[in-house]
Amino acid sequence: MSDTKLFIDGVWRDGAAGKRRDVTNPATGETIGTVALAEPSDLDDALAAAARGFAAWRSVSAYQRAAILRRAAQTIRADAAAIVDTIVTEQGKPVAEAKIEAGSAADILDWAAGEAQRLYGWTIPSRQAGVVQTAVREPVGPVAAFTPWNFPLNQPTRKLASALAAGCSVVLKASEETPASAAVMVRALAEAGAPAGVLNLVFGDGRIVSRHLITSSIIRKVSFTGSTPVGRQIAALAGEQLKRLTLELGGHAPVLVFEDAEIGDTVARTVAAKFRNSGQVCTSPTRFLVARQHHESFAAQFADAASKLVVGDGADPQTQVGPLTNERRILAIERLVADAVARGARLLAGGRRAQRPGRFYEPTVLADVPLEAEIMTEEPFGPVAIINPFDTVEDALLEANRVPFGLAAYAYSKRTTLVNAALAGLEAGMVSVNHHGLAQAETPFGGVKESGFGTEGGAEMLDAYTVTKFQTVLA
Fold first, then answer.
1. Please, what are the domains in the chain?
2. Radius of gyration, alpha carbons of the chain
3. What letter would DSSP give residue 377?
4. Which pLDDT belongs to residue 1?
5. Does residue 168 carry a catalytic annotation?
């Protein structure tokens, strides 16, 4: 791991005050590098660069923008082995998952390249002879983007690819805990031909950086992925400035397991999905609502499968569950699990920090968790599953929709009436039935309620980064 610098106006550089922060491997606690921290003057430089970059980039043809994105995708695929090592070392996820993330990042770039070439306008029939009416989509302007640490390559890629494809420039504030992965993507785009100023990368205190960027008159659009509490603060800042905003926030995804579900297959699929990235996934299935006649069997099989998962350093090919990226998550999970058990929940597996060095927590399964337990309304964002019974479809949907979140939801059934009830009744931006098929480059990604608003990915990926201009001409 090398020390990560800021990238401003086409130059990798230290912050004005020379301040740096250590970056550690969550599996070992070892310091693996440092990251440069930006001062207000660095942020001003990045904003000025983004303003100049936008003035030039918006005039670059869609075909040229697409070509740059595709070259960057080729670089990511060619350098996949080194990129995977970077992700594993600073974020902790297993090698197999890091490979998927690197491949997905390249797919996002390719998809964005195609969307850049499909940024269509339209013609509107006129009421008056000789008048031609059209509408065109133009880039909104310089973007301030904020990304978290759980998918350190993909999260920056989604925002950078969308903004650049639309013709916008970007100031990206990525996570200080996983800086090298974000730098990988910025470097790939710069080397692919993105002009100086079009993309800028900064690190620093989130509150200071966000306020400085969002309140700048240069920024026209804000895109944030992270927790709901921080999202509220970002939304308030953007609202004061009347900035366009995309928020992808937290979740607490329900899984409805109906009476006709094949329990063995459902357990296998949901265990894999629940403990992916140690549960540090906003779409992670968390609240398992199981038809009462299957509840005990499902809970026992799920707990047995969870207890057999191999916990260890993500660099080990045998590892299935890696460390949590930071100590904050360990402390939060310990609190939530202890509270649930104290209120009467049954602990079927895990429930403690793994007995080894590093930030590891055992895959944990709780059953019969009362509604008053904190974990029933607070997203655990870690390797914890809640398994509770339900009696009727109406009861299941009521509980699934009880929390203020609405990012992802899942259902398992082969019966058409139950599948349709889940699809129609679940209050979520994304619903996946009988598998876990979310977050591909070509599909929309976004939530409702307190899980945010706006969509990333799919055919809508450029909508949030463009404005519509109506044009009318009398010939």
1. 6-249+451-474 (3.40.605.10), 253-441 (3.40.309.10)
2. 23
3. T
4. 59
5. no
